[in-house]
Amino acid sequence: MSEIIYSGRRRHVTRKSGFTSHIDSTGGEYKEEFADKIMLKAGLPVSFIFEFSKPDKDLYAGYGGYYHCKTNLTVDIHNPNYEKNSNKHFDSPDLSKFGSMWKVQKGDTIKPVKVSFQSSVDSELSIYEFTSGLIWSAHFDNARDSIMKAMHDLSPEGNIYIEKDDVRVSGDFQIFEGDGDMISLKSCNRCARFLPINIHNERNHLSFSNHCVARAPCTHKGFGLLRNIDTDEFIELKYGYQLECRFCKKYEVNGPLNPQRTASQLKEDGQRRRNFELLLTELYNASPQLSYRTITKGRELATDVWNKFGRKCFHCGVPIKSEKKMHLDHTRPLALLWPLDKTATALCSTCNTQKRDRSPKEFYSEDQIRELSKITGLDTKDLESSEPNHEALDKLLKNLDWFYSVFLTKKELVKVKDGKIAAELIVKALDKATERSEKDYKFSFFNEYQKRKSSEG
């Protein structure tokens, strides 16, 4: 057994994130660096103990890093300070990440966090930016409470350290600095930091979200075409990445813009979802939840899903106290006409908000997709697809007269609210669903709606 203080090749501690596009970065640059390497012995864990200084004012504390191992790896996280920790593990050759961030008060004693790695065979573990310490960003000064949630999900890329603390390593191992895997790093056009990305399977995103998914390949320069700052050569990506890192995207883009959405826009979104649920119920002549209760002899869908997912959020693993506290997610989005049925997923409120109307492959890792398939019974191919519910669309296309003459003429759908008609919003939403499909429907629900309205007039 041995123990060392691990520092790696640390960057300067005063990385800051600004509020505007950075003068030194377009977000379209990338570079490569070597990770450090640890030799793991079969069956023997190597533990990293992340330590923390005592804060002299109210701040955040956090830890995290990036890693890669070609063999099956067990990662165990013990954080006595906070229950929410992120460990996004991706299959080789992609890089994985782990970490968390939580609020601490002046004078708090922050207990060390222990992260252990173990392989069943002798293997090489590449590690990059394993760091812990106290965190603050100018973005936190006036941030709304609503966007200061799920901070763990932004770790480690969101860990803007003002002070880095010691990381101790214990176990039977050898460490070689700069002798690990080559890591690809992309620039953020807001904070100018270079942060890790995966270029083998871009859907396994780390510090940046993908740019083009439904319309891949991405042909936008800076998003799907990155320039190597050392060689001036370009690399082409299939899906591409956003210009802003996930941290800056949340605090500089979504944070300022989301409050600008009016109350009527928020009501509009809710109404559109309710109308899609109503449409599906009438198309199939049954409510999925009521049908479920009948088939299962009175059992409630929410209760069964809550138990099936171990009474915890599938995405972040946080325990959910009751089915009433659980958010019942469609798994495949309602925006693509998938009903809420026995294939639903148990999520906490934070993760459900983050997922929104994204398909499973746009939100979950490959490992999570495989696990979700086992729990829900949906084939992995279905979960990896971003296609709309073609069965529902075909039913709709075969019943156009009913749809336009009966369904869309309901009183609640023809009323003008805040200058908008619900029926128009529904047909526009249906067109968005067909546009996300690889199948060419050669039909516009909105154009047909306009045509029929004109003939009536």
What does this structure look like?
The protein has 457 residues and is an alpha+beta fold. The chain has 3 domains: 2-259, no CATH class; 261-297 and 389-457, no CATH class; 300-386, His-Me finger endonuclease fold (3-Layer(aba) Sandwich), CATH 3.40.1800. Helices cover 25% and strands 24% of the residues. The protein contains 12 helices and 21 strands. Strands 3, 5, 7, 8, 10, 11 and 13 form a 7-stranded antiparallel β-sheet that branches. The model is unreliable at 10-19 and 258-266 (pLDDT under 50).
Number of H- or I-type helical stretches: 12
Global outline: globular
Instruction: Pick out the low-confidence regions.
Output: 10-19, 258-266
What class, by secondary structure content?
Answer: alpha+beta
Strand coverage percent? 15-25%
C-alpha Rg (nearest Å): 24 Å
The count of β-strands is 21
Distance between the termini: 85 Å
Number of domains: 3
Can you give the helix content as a percent range? 25-40%
Major sheet size, sense and barrel closure: 7 strands, antiparallel
Describe the structure in brief:
The protein has 457 residues and is of the alpha+beta class. It contains twelve helices and 21 strands.
What's the SSE blueprint?
Elements: E1 2-6, E2 29-34, E3 36-40, E4 46-50, E5 59-69, E6 73-78, E7 86-88, E8 96-104, E9 113-119, E10 123-135, E11 161-164, E12 167-171, E13 173-176, E14 182-187, E15 194-197, E16 225-228, E17 234-236, H1 246-257, H2 263-283, H3 288-295, H4 301-308, E18 327-329, E19 345-347, H5 349-355, H6 366-376, H7 380-383, H8 390-398, H9 400-405, H10 411-414, E20 416-417, E21 420-421, H11 422-435, H12 445-456
Parallel strand pairs: 2-16
Antiparallel strand pairs: 1-12, 2-14, 3-10, 3-13, 4-9, 4-12, 5-8, 5-10, 6-9, 7-8, 10-11, 14-15, 16-17, 18-19, 20-21
Helix pairs in contact: 2-11
